Amino acid sequence: MKRASDSVDLEKIRREAKKAWDDLFSADTLVCTGMSTCGISALACQTQDAIKEELSGRDFPARFMKVGCLGLCYAEPLVYVKKIGMPMVCYGYVTPEVVPSLVDKAILGDDLWKERALGIVDLPDIKERSAQTDIPSIWDHPMLKPQIRIALRNCGIIDPESIDHYLARGGYSALAKALITKPEAIIEEVKRSGLRGRGGAGFPTGMKWEFCRKATAPEKYLICNADEGDPGAFMDRSVLEGDPHSVLEGMLIAAHAIGSTAGIIYCRAEYPLALQRLDIALRQARDYGLLGDDILGSGMDFDIIIKEGAGAFVCGEETALMASIEGHRGMPKTRPPFPANAGLWSKPTNINNVETFANLSAIINRGGDWYNSIGIGRSKGTKTLSLAGAVRRAGLIEVPMGITLREIIFDIGGGIPGDRACKGVLTGGPSGGCIPAAHLDTPVDYESLAKVGSIMGSGSMIIIDEGTCIVDLARFFLTFTQRESCGKCTPCRIGTRQMLGILEKITRGEADLSDLSKLERLANAVRNGSLCGLGSTAPNPVLTTLRFFKSEFEEHILRGNCPSLVCKDLTSFYIDPGSCRSCGICAESCPAEAITGQFKEAHVIDQDKCIRCGVCISVCPEKFSAITRKSGKKVVQCI
Amino acid sequence: MEAKIRALLEELPGKEGALIPLLQGVQSTLGYISQDAVEAIGEVLGISESEVYGVATFYSEFRLFEPGEHQVKVCLGTSCYLKGGRELLERLSRSLGIPPGRTTPDGRFSLETVACLGCCSRSPVMAVDGVVYGNLTPLQAKAIIADLDE
Asked: In this predicted complex, what is the ipTM?
C-alpha cells in the first residue's frame, strides 16, 4: 500500500500517479463521461453503459472513466473521447439514443465528428491539442472563456474517486508546503490573498483563522459547511462531487493554521453522491497518510468525519450548524461568545464553506498576492456561481469578482431562451434579492450587490424572464423562509408569516394599497429584530422587488391583473375554438378532467373544474397553440 | 425497538450528539420515525420524548409516516418552481390520488416535496427512489411513475 510518511515519499507517489495519468491519454481509446448528479439525471450512466455495450462485440480496446461536472450542464450528458494520436474531444447532448452514432463516428471512425463536438479538452498533459484540428479548444467555448477556474480547476477533468488523479494534477503539494511553514505565516498569506468566506457573509478568512489560532485550548474543531441550503445553488455539490480532495486539502491547511486536530464536514443528506465521494476521498487520504497521525512526518494529527445534515436551511448559520452537530434543533445562538472562542462543544471552532477550502491550495502554492491580483475592490479572487432559470446555458461557472451580471447572463449564459426579455436576476437565494434588468451592469462583488439591496450569498443566480411574476416570486421565497424559520426570534417567526399572508392576499387580488406599506414596515421589523442571518435577510426578496417592481404589485392590487399570467387566482385558461384541432391531448392530460370535447369539435375548459395548473398549455401541440391565458375577470367562453 | 436503538448507538462514538444520527439510522432501516422509535430513543439517550419529537419534526429529512415502496420527491427549489415543479407536483398528486406528505393506500408510492436537489441546471427535477430525473414535463413524470407501477 502506498503511504507517504514524509513529503519525499509523497513526491514519489506523485511521480507514479503522474505517469499513470499520462498513460491514460497515450494508450488505448479513452472515453470519459461527466457523472455528477446533474449528468446522471440526464442519463449519463445509461449513456456510458450503451457505449460499453456498443463496443463490447467489436474487440476494440477502450478505457472508461467518470469525471465530475465541467459546468456545461445544459449540454449534458457530456462525453469526451480521446483516440490514440488525436486530441480529446468533448461531445454534448450524448443521450443513449445518440450513442450508436457517437461510437460509429467519434470512436470507431477516422474523423472527430465535428458537428457534435463542443470543443477540444486541452490539458497540459495531453500533447495532442486543438491546434491540430479545426475544432476550437473547449476553453474558448463562450461559456468557459470568461472563466478563471481555481476552485473548479479539477472539476470535469479528473476522476473524483481517484486520489492519484488529484495528485497527478499537483494535489496535496500545497499541504506539504504548508506543513513546513509556520501557522502564522500561512494566516498572513491567506490574509494577503483577500479571500473572504464564500458561504455568503464574506467575512475575511485569514482574520477568522487568526481569532481561532489565538484561542488557547488543547482541542479545536474545524468544520466544513457543506449544508448548501439555498434552493437554487449547487456549487458546493459540484465541487464535492467533482473534486473532493481539493476540499480535504484546504481543510488540512486550515487545520495546520489554526491548530485543529478534529475536522467535521457537515453535508446535507440530499446530496447522496457528494457524501459517497467524500467518504471515498477520506478513506484514500487516510490510506495515503494524508489524514491521521503525524501527517507527512510533520507531527500534525488531524482527521475528518462526515456529519449528515438533516435538512434545515437555518443550519447554514454557523451557530445553528453547531447546535445541529450537537444533536439539537438547529437554532442560532447569540454572539459573543464567538465560535472561535467557544463553538462546538464549547471548544474553539472555525467554520468555512466548501468553496473557501477549495481555493486554499492554490493560494498557498501561488501566493496570496497572485490571488489578490484577481477581482475588484475588496472582493478578491473568483466566485463560483450556479446559473439556472431562464438562461440558454445553465450550469456551473467560476468567474473573477467584478464581472457584470450582463456578461454572466449574455456572454456566458448565452442569453434568454426564445429571445424573450430578461426581467432580472435573483442572487443570494431566499436571503438575496431580485436585481432588475436595468441594473444588469452591476458588477458581481460583495459590495456592489449589497448596494442594490441583494447579496452575493453562496452564489446562486437564477435568471428570470417576463414569464415570471414578481409577486409570486416574493411569495415563493417567503413561503420558504417562513417554513425554515427556526422559531427562536418572534419577529422572524411571526413576521415572516404575516408577510407571507399579505403576499398571498396580493396574489389573490384581495389586497389594498395600504398592505404595501404594512409589508414594508413588517420587513424592516423582521430585518432588525432577528438574531441570525436567516431572519435579517428574509425580507430582502420582498424589499428589492418592492423597490424595483412596485408597479407590478400595484397592478395586482388595483386591477386584479397578473401581467405575467402566473398568479392562479387571477388567471384563466381558454381554448381558442378557431385554433383547436380537437386532438384531445389536453383533455387526456388535464389532471382535473376539466376539458371536454368530441372528435372534430373544439374542446372547452370548464372554469369551475380548472385548477389552473397549466398542463394543457404545455401539451397543446405547438402548431395549434390553441390554449391561451388571460388575466383579470373571468370571461364566458362561447362555443 | 430499544435493542435496535442500542445497536445503532454502539456504532456511534458516544451518546453526545447521537440524537440526529440515531434518527437517521432509524429512518434508513425503518423508512420513517415511528412512535416506538421516538420513545425508545428517548429512553436510551435519557432525554424526554418531546425533545426527540422536537428534533425529528425540526428537520425536513425525517418523516413521521410510513413511506411507500417507491418514494417520489418533487423538487421545489427556486429554479424548479419557476420552470414547472409545481405543475409536476400537481400532476403526480392527482394521478397518485394523494397530497404531498402521504403514502397511497396500497402502500406503493409516497409523495414528498424537497427544498432543493441541487440539479437546478436541469430543472424541473424529481427523485424517485434516489434517482434524479431532469428536464421533466408533467406527462413524463407521470409516465415514470406509471412504468414503476407495472
From this structure: 0.92
